[in-house]
Design brief:
The protein is α/β, with parallel strands linked by helices. It is 47% helix and 19% strand. α1 links the parallel β1 and β2.
């Protein structure tokens, strides 16, 4: 089972739509604001997620992946962090949702095969996830 948390910079509607599509397979998707206060820091919510297994965080904030404290929190919390490629970020919300859904099987495999890590979620289904 994979649990996906969409960071505060992602449209909440994507999490709600994805949840409806994947819950029948035992997966879940939610918005950060559905689980935590809106003012929680990235390090704090990552630390809280470390108490559970199988979390994937999806975000647009690639600068977050480059800051040492946030990177350390991701690796210590055993969270898999996926950052939308710039081409995906430029898409309309419905296209972003479609790209994430298009990549869903690879997201599940990435979570199963990696204890943690930071990766770019590509726009093309045939593209591999790139480690950051």
């Amino acid at each position: 089972m994979v649990k996906v948390l969409f960071d505060h910079n992602m449209p909440p509607v994507i999490a709600r739509a994805l949840h409806e599509l994947v819950k029948s397979d035992g997966h879940e998707a939610c918005n950060l604001r559905d689980r935590f206060r809106t003012d929680i820091s990235d390090i704090d919510y990552l630390t809280k997620l470390s108490n559970e297994k199988d979390w994937v965080v999806i975000s647009k904030d690639l600068s977050n992946a480059k800051r040492a404290p946030e990177r350390a929190a991701i690796f210590q919390s055993n969270v898999l962090a996926l950052y939308l490629a710039k081409a995906v970020q430029k898409q309309r919300v419905n296209e972003q949702a479609a790209t994430i859904l298009w990549q869903w099987d690879k997201i599940v495999m990435q979570r199963q095969n990696n204890k943690n890590g930071l990766f770019i979620l590509p726009v093309n289904k045939g593209s591999k996830f790139t480690a950051i």
